[in-house]
Amino acid sequence: MSIHKAIFLDRDGTIIPDIPYLSDEKLISIPHSSILGLKLLQHLEFKLIIVTNQSGIARGYFKESDLHRIHNHLLFLLKNDGIEITDVFYCPHHPDDGCMCRKPSGYLIQKAAFKHDIHLSQSYMIGDKETDVEAGRNAGVKSVLLSNSEESTSHNIHEYSATNLFEAAQQIQELSKILSNS
Ligand SMILES: [Mg+2]
Ligand SMILES: [Zn+2]
Description:
Distance between the termini: 25 Å
Oligomer: single chain
CATH topology: Rossmann fold
Number of strands: 6
Shape: globular
Radius of gyration: 15 Å
CATH superfamily: HAD superfamily/HAD-like
CATH class: Alpha Beta
Bound molecules: magnesium ion, zinc ion
Helix content: 25-40%
Number of domains: 1
Structural class: alpha/beta
């Protein structure tokens, strides 16, 4: 059995711009920085796995079938750019549901790791919210917070910050070098 390392990626505000309750796949656009970042991470031999909260389903804004259509289109666009997404995990619940999977829970990351033989200690979570960082921490992976604000530098030592996915990928590249030399 081979053991892999992975990057767990938030979707909205991380891979694609955050359009609240996105339900139309035609609105999906992938910034160049995301393409470059994902390509670099893939080159570093990380599996790419999306972990996303989609409470729009519980709220009745869109159906699970709409979400699948959106994800199929997103994966299709990424594939056209040579990027392979290993899997997509989502929480369809409302924040008040008290479910076990909604980030900041680490449940979906751990579930993904179990399914795909992922070594968590060599893996990272990248997201644009504190809840993403917390989810990473809860699952036992290091996290990179995407933020355009200067406040994002006030994190503890296990967390890293970047302004876009390409910067985050470059940081992970540097960290991987340090880890493999130690
Ligand atoms: Mg987000
Ligand atoms: Zn859930």
